[in-house]
Amino acid sequence: QVQLVESGGGLVQPGGSLTLSCTASGVSLSRYPGSWYRQAPGKGRELVAIVGSTADSTVYADSVMGRFTISIDYAKHAVNLQMTTLKFEATAVYFCNVKVFTPKWDDYWGQGTQVTVSS
Question: Which residues have CB under 8 Å from 3's CB, separation 6+?
């Protein structure tokens, strides 16, 4: 029943901005944490940012601190990732994740959206 769909990826110039959106169905974003991961070519999947279910706590990777902002749009059932001052290193497939406890932790993933930073 849980489905996550990422959108908003694309081609952007260095220093530019993009906002990614993860639309969730079958799960309440007011109860479970959401996060964004990314995987660059030849590299493992890395955590980018986490937002708590109440949206009052966030965690960011050091590489994006101060430039990326994760948030929840409860009305649209979405976890957003606002990215600014994009660098070449941000080129990757970005994946949305929601962790659900029922009573063990289960992870749900979207299909990913490609972000390419190029001049």
Answer: 24, 25, 26, 108
